[in-house]
Amino acid sequence: MCGLKSMRTVLVTGGAGFIGSNFVRLTLTQSEIQIINLDKLTYAGNLESLASVMNDPNHVFLHGSIGDRDLVKEILIKYHPDAVVNFAAESHVDRSIDGPVDFIQTNIVGTFELLEAARAYWSDLTGNDRERFRFLHISTDEVYGSLGSEGFFTEKSPYAPNSPYSASKAAADHLVRAYHHTYSLPVLTTNCSNNYGPYQFPEKLIPLVILNSLEGKQLPVYGDGQNVRDWLYVEDHCQAIRVVLEKGRPGEVYNIGGNNEKTNIQVVYALCDLLDELHPQKNGKSYRSNITFVRDRPGHDQRYAIDASKIKDELGWVPDETFETGLRKTVQWYLENCEWCERVRNGSYRGERLGLGIMF
């Protein structure tokens, strides 16, 4: 089988973002693969997240967009990668409510342009190079919509996206699938649950709660806080992606979950309790006293939960971290890296409420 161990060079798109940068750092420490890292460096893509590998001889950073087909073609021809791993995406639901156009342009049009460039490149490959090539598309469980109180998303679940973000990712998933069935491009798709961990942009729930707590601000919780998510530690996710790239069957979809269903308020309570232990307030109060319930997000999905039995049974992957161990590592990282947080908050986001949309 031609997999990650036989690969020499991988093109990673969106490799300066949260999950992408974790994947880049992890892969460079665990293998001799050369990574060509293409990122547009929007608000959530930041070179600060790659500081530890910017001088690594196996890491080449290129500033550019997946929507620039000519640029991607030049990169593919010059570096001759054995795989493309596509992390590049606009990924925040609240931002998609306020401004969906960027999500359509990057997640749909950008993925199309990347697929076209990859298809042209792959079509010219021969022998082992052609056999080895893979196009791995990183997606989300949000494409499946919202679950009730029971059941799990599987790879056979129908798509029912409920936000501009998830709709754009669903469209991208369908394009990737179509390029396999129409052109035989050797694609793989992964749909993951909510990631958390080091280097996450501060607008997401867990880093927002941590940083607001440290700054003495209120901790906003949408609605009644009972929306449920399955939480996946980002390094577990990156290991799963490596396993899919190594062993996954072209044309297949693999759901990646952390087996950690929690309501939003449970997550906030857990963060407050860890901060009470690791960084207590000077006034002696619990950080829970700063929790405030705010108006819910429009169209807020009630529950996501992943059935990850396929990747476990077929590829042998299971997460290493529990929610408790992963969350403790995350809180400790943010406490030790406050300077990173300040540098990435460059003015485009200052902790304000997003995603209220236009109210009539």
Short description:
With 360 residues, the protein is α/β, with parallel strands linked by helices. It has twelve helices and twelve strands.
Structural class: alpha/beta
Mean pLDDT: 92
- CATH homologous superfamily placement of the domain at 4-199 and 231-260 and 299-322: NAD(P)-binding Rossmann-like Domain
CATH class of the domain at 4-199 and 231-260 and 299-322: Alpha Beta
Strand content: 15-25%
Could you name the ranges where pLDDT drops below 50 across 5 or more consecutive residues? 347-360
What Rg do the Cα atoms give?
20 Å
**Largest sheet geometry:** 7 strands, parallel
What is the name of the CATH topology of the domain at 4-199 and 231-260 and 299-322? Rossmann fold
Taken from the alpha-carbon principal axes, the silhouette is globular
Number of helices: 12
> Reading side by side through the largest sheet, how are the strands ordered?
3-2-1-4-5-6-10
What separation lies between the terminal Cα atoms? 56 Å
CATH architecture of the domain at 4-199 and 231-260 and 299-322: 3-Layer(aba) Sandwich
Order of helices and strands: EHEEHEHHHEHEEHEEHEEHEHHH
Number of strands: 12
Q: What percent of residues adopt helix (DSSP H or I)?
A: 40-55%
What does this structure look like?
α9 packs across α11 (323-336). Mean pLDDT is 92; it is low at 347-360. The chain starts with 8 loop residues before the first strand and ends in a 16-residue tail after the last helix. The chain is globular and about 65 Å long. The chain is of the alpha/beta class and 360 residues long. The longest helix is centred in the first third of the chain and has 23 residues, at 101-123. The strands form three sheets. Strands 3-2-1-4-5-6-10 form a seven-stranded parallel beta sheet, with helices on both faces. The protein is built from twelve helices and twelve strands. It has a domain at 4-199 and 231-260 and 299-322: NAD(P)-binding Rossmann-like Domain (Rossmann fold), CATH 3.40.50. β1 (9-13), α1 and β2 (34-39) form a beta-alpha-beta unit.
